[in-house]
Amino acid sequence: MATAEPESTSNPPNSEEEKTEATGQEVVSPEHYIKHPLQNSLYNHIQLSSNLMSGCDYSLFKDGIEPMWEDERNKRGGRWLITLSKQQRRSDLDRFWLETLLCLIGEAFDDYSDDVCGAVVNIRTKGDKIAIWTTDYENKDAVTHIGRVYKERLGVPQKVIIGYQSHADTATKSGSTTKNKFVV
Fold first, then answer.
1. Between 20 and 30 A from 130 (CA), which of 27, 40, 57, 95?
2. How far apart are CA 143 and CA 181, in angstroms?
3. Terminal CA-to-CA distance of the chain, rounded, Å?
4. What is the pLDDT of residues 73-91, one digit of tens each?
5. Is the entire prediction scored with pTM above 0.85?
6. Which tens digits make up the pLDDT trace of 116-171?
7. In degrees to the nearest 10, what's the CA dihedral of 145, 150, 151, 156?
8. SS3 82
């Protein structure tokens, strides 16, 4: 029984130039790739939020933005605030904070990711808080989109309402609570 071997209709390209011409794509050698600054994550080397002492905070902000209301990028902004019960420290705090960090690092808010300044987790005796800070509370489209995506990424039940507060209102509040500008 005879077997026929398929004939080669073209010879494979021998040089990088020929590969480029044949595929229409430039071949880039791995030496030209730039390592991303997050190649090794600090998250693996710090204490979990749930193990911090009351009164401690973690903040993650974009380069050049201080985690303060007075910072130029924050002063007209606000925050989506998640308030956790004491029991949620065990069940939800670390997962929520990690997902918050992933949302920031992965720019999960589509075209509105530039409006995000950073995030804070506050460990408190009465109950912990996690917040994503944005740059402009008057940008309703950005703020509400960020809130909806954030709530979905955390897996917060639809019936649970989370609120957005401007830093100006928080700074001048007279009682223990600040009025929400938006809710999702």
1. 40
2. 10
3. 73
4. 999 999 999 999 999 999 9
5. no
6. 999 999 999 999 999 999 999 999 999 999 999 999 999 999 999 999 999 999 88
7. 170
8. strand
Question: How far from 8 is each of 2, 15, 21, CA to CA, in Å?
Answer: 19, 19, 19
> Is the CB of residue 43 less than 8 Å from the CB of residue 98?
yes
Q: Which stretches within 84-139 are classed as H helix? A: 88, 94-105
Amino acid (1-letter code) at residue 115: D
Q: Please classify residue 169 by burial: count the beta carbons closer than 10 Å to its beta carbon, then call 0-12 exposed, 13-18 middle and 19+ buried.
A: middle
Contact 133, 119 (CB under 8 A): yes
Q: Which SS3 state, helix, strand or coil, does residue 117 take?
A: strand
Find where tokens 């507060």 sit.
Answer: 165
- Pull the structure tokens for residue 173: 């509040």
Read off the amino acid at residue 123: I
The helix (H) or strand (E) run that includes residue 151 is: helix 140-154
Q: Residue 96 CA to chain centroid, in angstroms?
A: 11
Q: Distance (Å, rounded) from C-alpha 131 to C-alpha 1?
A: 75
